[in-house]
Amino acid sequence: MIRRRHLYCRPARPEEGQIFLEWSRNTPDNGFDPEVAKYPSTITWCVYDRFGPLAFMPVQHPLVMESVASRPGASKLEIAEALKEFTQNCVTQAHVRGAGEILFLGSEEGTDHMAQNQIFEKLNYTVYRLRVKDLESK
């Protein structure tokens, strides 16, 4: 019989900050951005065992601009203006909520282009989604 070790998860402790930074910098290709840990809405979690910390992960609460539904016949300029207004609103909401990032999920060439022409940075990450409701059978 194989005995599995017990792992636990808790918020990282202030005194573990230096370990978290060191491990983050030494983990290749993890996309580490030290600013994320400073966002007011971020919580850095620690998975540990009886020997101490095993891994750290900051979990942030960004705003996600998911999709744009526009009026039929609206011009590209009108859609661009609407996207600008949505972006300004999200910036205000980010300040209110302590979110450090706003993500725009582009799926259409025109709105992708508009997002890049505004203040969005294109990221080279694959995005995965987990729908919590799908974790339980119906």
Which structural class fits the helix and strand makeup? alpha+beta
> Biggest sheet, in brief?
3 strands, antiparallel
If you average the pLDDT, what whole number results? 90
The helix/strand order is EHEEEHEH
Number of strands: 5
Strand order of the largest sheet: 1-2-3
**Contiguous uncertain segments of 5+ residues:** none
**Tally of individual domains:** 2
Keyword list:
3-stranded antiparallel sheet; 3 helices; alpha+beta; 2 domains; 138 residues
Secondary structure elements and pairings:
Elements: E1 8-11, H1 17-26, E2 43-49, E3 52-59, E4 63-65, H2 76-97, E5 102-104, H3 109-117
Parallel strand pairs: 4-5
Antiparallel strand pairs: 1-2, 2-3
Helix pairs in contact: 2-3
Describe this structure in words.
The chain is an alpha+beta fold and 138 residues long. It folds into two domains: 8-59, no CATH class; 63-133, no CATH class. Helices cover 30% and strands 18% of the residues. The protein contains three helices and five strands; from the N terminus they run E-H-E-E-E-H-E-H. It has helices at residues 17-26, 76-97, 109-117; strands at residues 8-11, 43-49, 52-59, 63-65, 102-104. A three-stranded antiparallel sheet has the order 1-2-3. Strands 4-5 form a two-stranded parallel sheet. Helix 2 (76-97) packs across helix 3 (109-117). The protein starts with 7 loop residues before the first strand and ends in a 21-residue tail after the last helix. The mean pLDDT is 90.
